[in-house]
């Protein structure tokens, strides 16, 4: 029986890719989910796994060819011969009694090529049930739990905690059946040997990376590769050019040198903890945002009296009818949608020398989690009701706190709301979430004396901050946007009347 290997979904707005590297050749035996080839798009690199165990019988799209989504790449003939390599570790035991099952890195998501093993829940020799959680992987966006593919005994852990693994790596070995025996000493060195050998072989760099290096006058030893086995990718060349190749060479050694404590006594009271991949990514993206956008912030304040009164009046009825609490975020989301219609450049983004206006609102709602800040996206918020928005915010927030958000749920946002008020912040300047051009910062509601119609009265006030990209949003547009948000919140009837 022959199974087709086709181009997978490449991601939002990506319609074609170039076949960069074939890891197998016709006649090679392949295991299920073993990487066959690597595709390269203008945004990401995608590895294509084998859908079945068998033999690679034909390569249809050769290296260097451009292929579209769902195009045929190769054919794999299913057969018993493919099972032999996977079963080899268990050859010493009777096949009927025990079978070795590899635990592989699961699909990590679009554009994610590696992960860090953060925690093992089981140790070698432990008995595991099928689908029981074995370990947790951490990527620069999400945490991924790895279940056991079979019931049996954990006989070998190949990737220890802290190890960085690629999207096709083996994590562990499960021996299923009555004859399963733990053998960590024999399995680990054997698994490590191929990895060590791979590091010493010549690695073919991506075609686009070669072209970019030639244009920039760089050699491959001046660029640090992030691809499979250290393969240099297009984005690696761009990073090397941005950093400046003359300064890039000594930088790793200098960066690697730990900061010396001021005294031995201070050293004994310090704790050094490696940044998580998520925290490293947050740091990089925020610094990139500062370096790229012409970011400014404008401020205003809003009297929350009317919103609080409306919420108090209808919150019980709202909960009874819709099964979700009525919070402030739905009011702010509606107010922002209202303002974005009038000032569309705040909802736009820059792409090269073009401005891309979005005729929809995918609202990012920043959420703090134990591992860092994430921004789940509520799609088409402009067409949602108050109840729909509250339900979406509640569901996304719970998934964020549990580390269950997928990358797709954090991509494609057009505008972001960040609520520092839940932590007690009175005023701050939020930083842009690129490539977006605007972010609204909410803050603590605090009673303050205000002059109303010639009288000093106490009102619940909140400072608002809009950070915006001045390359695309003028000061007039930013101020107008914030004033429209203020007006809609101080008189919520405007949202109903579209005023």
Could you list some keywords that capture this structure?
alpha+beta, 3 domains, OB fold (Dihydrolipoamide Acetyltransferase, E2P), Dihydrolipoyllysine-residue succinyltransferase component of 2-oxoglutarate dehydrogenase complex, 4-stranded antiparallel sheet, Chloramphenicol Acetyltransferase
Chain-wise SSE layout:
Blueprint: E1 2-6, E2 16-22, E3 29-30, E4 35-40, E5 45-49, E6 54-59, E7 66-68, E8 72-78, H1 83-87, E9 99-104, E10 114-120, E11 127-128, E12 133-138, E13 143-147, E14 152-157, E15 164-166, E16 170-176, H2 184-200, H3 207-216, H4 234-243, H5 245-248, H6 251-256, H7 264-268, H8 277-292, E17 295-303, H9 305-322, H10 329-342, E18 349-351, E19 354-356, E20 363-365, E21 367-369, E22 372-374, E23 377-378, H11 386-401, E24 415-419, E25 438-442, E26 446-452, E27 455-469, H12 475-490, H13 493-497
Parallel strand pairs: 20-24, 24-25
Antiparallel strand pairs: 1-8, 2-4, 2-7, 3-6, 4-5, 6-8, 9-16, 10-12, 10-15, 11-14, 12-13, 14-16, 17-27, 18-19, 20-23, 21-22, 25-27, 26-27
Helix pairs in contact: 3-4, 10-11, 10-12
Pfam family, one: Biotin_lipoyl
Enzyme class: transferase
Catalytic activity: N(6)-[(R)-dihydrolipoyl]-L-lysyl-[protein] + succinyl-CoA = N(6)-[(R)-S(8)-succinyldihydrolipoyl]-L-lysyl-[protein] + CoA
